[in-house]
Amino acid sequence: xxxxxxxxxxxxxxxxxxxxxxxxxxxxxxxxxxxxxxxxxxxxxxxxxxxxxxxxxxxxxxxxxxxxxxxxxxxxxxxxxxxxxxxxxxxxxxxxxxxxxxxxxxxxxxxxxxxxxxxxxxxxxxxxxxxxxxxxxxxxxxxxxxxxxxxxxxxxxxxxxxxxxxxxxxxxxxxxxxxxxxxxxxxxxxxxxxxxxxxxxxxxxxxxxxxxxxxxxxxxxxxxxxxxxxxxxxxxxxxxx
Length: 241
Known about the structure:
single chain, alpha/beta, 23% strand
């Protein structure tokens, strides 16, 4: 096949068999999904909606299945949405810069490993905050914009096989200060913290033939530094009386 430009979303269609392959190219995304879910509390009311923006193959689903949400996944790729639907997610085909969802319809919006792929960050943040109800929770994780994160994620990560080649365009990486400001402009006070993969998990994953029972080889753990990978959590301001 002819090579695609970096960050071309069609690459995910070609890599659809990796979403749920144990130890495959998307192994790290499973760890991130589990870590993201730990930031999401149980639903406070029956029928509460969780919008999973850029849901891919639905990796968040097993980690929030018992929390009481109606899980809605939005993504551009039909192959990924099909996999997500098979895991109980309500699939919606759409662009995160123009979510085809009603304003204030979600108690929780999750944006996992999507912000470093969008070409219009302000529009994406505006949409994430728009569909969030007042008092609702935004959770996210993304990649910082600096030389170290570009080296770790692209140069080193692709060389070691921690990320499929060409999936990231480092020009789109997101400075947390910019993200905090964008969220604040839409009434969401975002707090961020650093995160990193467990060293033992990385070692297991990098073995030529990792032996495991289909479960995750590692996990994401918090760290003080946001230099490479970071998580964000924030609530949308309540409407004034």
